[in-house]
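Hello K.,

You asked for the raw outputs rather than the summary table, so here they are, unedited. I folded two proteins back to back in the same session to keep the settings identical. This is the first:
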Amino acid sequence: MSETTDKEKKPPLNGRRALPSNNSNEEENEVPEMEAFGLIPRGFNPKDYLRVVDIHMFKEPHEINKQQHHTDKYYNPKLIVRRGQAFQIQVDFNRPYSPETDQFWLEYLIGRYPQQNKGTYIPILVRDVLKPGEWGAKITHKENNSVRLSIMSSATCIIGKFRLYVAVLTPFGILRTHRNAATDTYILFNPWCQQDAVYLDDEKEREEYVLNDVGIVFHGNINDIKLRSWSYGQFEENILDACLFLMDKAELELSGRGNPIKICRVASAVINSRDDNGVIAGSWDNTYTNGVPPSAWTGSVDILLEYYSSKQPVRYGQCWVFAGVFNTFLRCLGIPARLITNYSSAHDNNANLQLDFFLDDEGKVDTTTTKDSVWNYHCWNEAWMTRPDLPVGFGGWQVVDGTPQETSDGMYRCGPASVQAIKHGHVCFQFDAPFVYAEVNSDIVYLRRAKNGTQVIENIDTTHVGQLIVTKEVGRDGMMEITEEYKFQEGSEEERLALETAVMYGVKKQTIQDTSYQPQTDVDMEFQVQKAVLGSDFKVTITFRNKSRNIYTATAYLSGNIVFYTGVTKNEFKKHSFNAKLEPYSSSAFDVVIKSSEYLSDLLDQASFHFFVTARINETGKILATQKATVLEIPALRIKTQGAMVAGKEMSVTVEFTNPLKQTLENVVLRLEGPGVLRTMKKEFRQIPMNSTLIWEVKCIPNRPGLRKLIASLNCDALRHVYGELNVQIQKP
């Protein structure tokens, strides 16, 4: 009898997997406390070996871990840390730990079927050094029977609640600590960690978009803007567990939960109840029977806790409720997020980038045939992340929308769609960019059906949709307009060019005989960016090749943007429009000079630029569009050594650097380190005048022979990511 019940408990396997899918953080597996290597000899007593007596997690809000990881606000007794950053624990043994004879390691597990290659089973051996952004542990302190450990988690680690075991090796098997919920560790996204996909470089923005637990919703309409506060409550009791439950509910494979793109995509579906019994049931018909009217909610906490306990959709929500709860979810997990309002928001049913309003004979809108609509306002969210799945330049703010409007890949969800891609009309990049582009940019086309059945265009309104896009100010309660993040100036040349680019990428071919899009095949456009060293002027050359016998004129626009090395745009530093005359059968080149004064003040760490060039051939109305990223050359540090390089003997290292900028560098910090050669050393220089060279000499005594590396870096406000390195061969004495 016991055998059959045991069999029934096993989940059904399908033919494609060796293991069932591992998509619940809640479920656990049994972990053996004694894992024998074979037969255990008589007289084996586990108590004879190193044994764990207690584990201290330093998990109180005032203790080191929650303070350093910005998780002290969470109302949760367990340890909460952010990935890619070290945290501390202490293990007490039954006797002093002796590294020569004792061996122990840590194991972090998540879900029911932990596997090392999926990142759901993580064994961590104790090592001498921690590598940034990779799993590891090292002993920082030993006293009596206790060992203090510093543990580094991977910067791409799964987000969720992990179980911790300490394993000790004995000659006959592995002894593990028993299951102890008090040592469970939550690992969240880390916007403070440069290697994390959600890294945000501005502390004030991190405080607003990750740590602020209240916000403002702008509503009303374009002529009468109203605002209200919303409590996100991402740190309240049980909210973190409720947010993790949402990913279980969405059946997101645990191995995908380190990826903010995947998390946003599934969350945008599970926030609404359509097709998956998600969190909030929407209602727009003014009848809210057996539920709370959307306008009555003041925050997200009640909604999330009710859903977490009942597992049934909470009634009712409209766009700002979906957006408010979504914002709580994102901030709670550590993804920077903000709530956006778009006034006069288009709802384009067939994503043809225009709203088709059909008029009847009297000129009124025919409600039976008109399927598109314009909302007074619509709220969605932006989440901040890199987009390694897209070309460089499209990271940064991404639109995600939990309000059910249209299906995407068969479910009611929307995003993440790059705001930068939407602005420039590059709507070919996933996910759902054409839909969002239409929400802020659509032209309203008024059509009338003539007697013979053809459609006659009566009027086109190009300015109504997406007149104002706003969010809450950073650190204050005012309104910040971000319309220009999404679109160029209404009626400007660039705006039309972006629209025509979007049409080129986004229009669905309705039928074969329909006027499907014909690109301009007889003119080519490309551009080259001159290689340049940081601090100098350089030029961008745009070349048109007219392969036809016609004379054409082109209206062209160049946009230069400063981007993070991850491809996230910071801001536009160069706008340049020009007209070009293209003679038959010839090439024409146009230079745009980029002055150092235009980019230096905004330059980011990695000195990366991203250029868009868009042109319209005026005679045909056809669009040519292209974009590329480019990086300035950053001058390197030079490292030299003098004297014999022998372990145990003094040697000398010099670091040199010449200031390439047309300005004095101030408060420059140099660092030099070389594992096995010298401990990290720091030196500050108050000023380095332009064109002058600094020389820093250091004496050191290398202690380990072999091939070693010296690494130096220079940092100041005006210049970052200046590095130098040198391999050195240290001889045996």
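The second followed immediately with the same parameters:
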Amino acid sequence: GEVLKNLNKFYKRKEIQRLGAENGLDARLFHQAFISFRKYIMESSSVSADLHIILNDICCGAGNVCLLGHVDDLFPFFLRHAKQIFPMLDCMDDLRKISDLRLPPNWYPDARAIQRKIIFHAGPTNSGKTYHAIQRFLSAKSGIYCGPLKLLAHEIFQKSNDANVPCDLVTGEERVYANKDARQAPHIACTIEMCSTNTPYEVAVIDEIQMIRDPARGWAWTRALLGLCAEEIHICGEPAAIDLVTELMYTTGEEVEVRNYKRLTPLTVLDHALESLDNLQPGDCVVCFSKNDIYSISRQIEAKGLECAVIYGSLPPGTKLEQAKKFNDPNDPCKILVATDAIGMGLNLCIKRIIFNSIVKPTINEKGEKEIDSITTSQALQIAGRAGRYGSSFKQGEVTTMHRDDLMQLKEILNESVRPVKAAGLHPTPEQIEMFAYHLPDATLSNLIDIFVSLSQVDGLYFVCNIDDFKFLADMIQHIPLNLRSRYVFCTAPLNRKEPFVCTTLLKFARQFSRNEPLTFDWLCRHTKWPLPSPKNIKELVHLEAVHDVFDLYLWLSYRFMDMFPDAALVRDIQKKLDGIIQVGVCNITKLIRASQSAAAPGAAEVVSEDFPLSRTKRDTRAVSDRQGVKSTEALSVAVEVPEGRRVKNLKAYRSATRQEDLKSHGRGSLANRLLREGLLTQEMLRQLESEWQDQHRNGTYGLRSKRDDQSSSNETGKKKK
């Protein structure tokens, strides 16, 4: 007990904490080291003789010397123990130098060796800013286009070659040469992560520069902006990024010329909402922010005898292009588009009117939890700007909402100024991680990244990008024996960690790779069960999309480990066939939705409306709130037991009902708003529930009772109604 008391005194001493900080132990590490040190002393059957003597002197107060003075004598033993559990303490100065990110311009000596001319083409969507940059790209002797999407890179690749300017296409998964003998062309169109900072060009184009603030991918724009070795750098994007780019270029000694552009066609925010799908017109695009809403809206549209195209993020690029072509074709009966914000960039669409089905968007926070928040001004402008594209059959664009009470908020969002871009993203390079590993040979890759980020120093113009996906993959493959460089490459693979099938496949790839066994075409076919039939329901369509991502993953790895992933050409062939199968599935999406509903197992809860899919959680909470212009007298909340993938047909499972007055009195704290913010309820679900309740109310078949009604019925019959 005396030892424990004195150890705790040691821990609380300010002088000891200061000495710890001087030796690299911040508050968190100091606390962890002390807990381990205390456990070592208290639980060890014996300790070294010198430590035993010190402890004895402290506890006995040898020579009547002040106990606190003797407590400090424990520090050398504490520091020695701390270095055993935190080996980095022995080389802290070296690690701090390696993780010093305060001067990123110095990472690119080739770019610093030339005086670059920086031209910023600033303007909204559909203002011609990218067009002017591309014209200069085409007229140059050599050039590189860097875009955020494969679709954009492919579009510039096509335009260049159509204009008789030989241009290669370079993406993470694909290399297409303009020359038949595979000689590199003087022009390259690439996704921004794939740009070379060593090759000299006359002109470089960096598209969508505002994405330099992206928490996950911003580092790629920073790298291109600081590192491209080109005489002229043409930057395209929102005016909100002008100040940051100017400041960054000031640190490199380069001036920025700004060319401002205005929208080429007028865009009008309408004074009325759509309110009903009966009011849809040719050229309309309904924008949703969840797949469930996509399925619901497309089903309702086709139930009215209208054809619609469907575009969402997880569709393969070929399917997106095919759906866009179908919608744009004046001779095709498909005149309506239902899409997510995936249409915000990368697709040329002949849209007359953008209709926001909702103005809230689900996001995943840093804890991995689902949240819902209003879309930003930048997102709203990017999407709304797709209406009335210059050169299309519609000379002006229109934008509105599906529901009346969203329209005023949309107008407020669109009228707000776009938040200035404040900082540019950075990411540790493989070389930096290798130097860390040299000093900390026993640390896992995930720990190396953690230590790097904790020690890294950045100035106010930069931030370290989110590394959660990297760490997720690093932890997943940690048990597989790989050298550090290979492990790093696997962890940077572009995949969605929410797709179990794709993550499992990466794990199998890594395991096979570690055995030095090539991943052949036959092996891949066995794993994916290729050939695959056309999808019969939504679940099968989603699986096909995941298989397409697996093929993408194989192709991505094949360009980094050619000998271990040798059958890229064969995989690309079957990927094209799979793209065709998915296209057929998307064209028949409403049939797949119906098949999914009819396949629901007996005994499951029945559906609110056949167009209303519940989310996949085991226990789902839903709510109905009063909306403007609707004479709702109740706000209803329900907790329904739903097996994964099931849908519900009526609302038997409602447990309580709350008066409209209660809903109003709670304001933003109401159950409905809380569920919306927490991502347990979408606007579409809320409206569907309310609509059905109103129908039942008018028809006199309530199907739902308030608590008061239940009590009344109970008094009459002697039994409680469920």
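The chain is about 45% helix and 15% strand.

Happy to rerun anything if the numbers look odd on your end.

Regards,
P.
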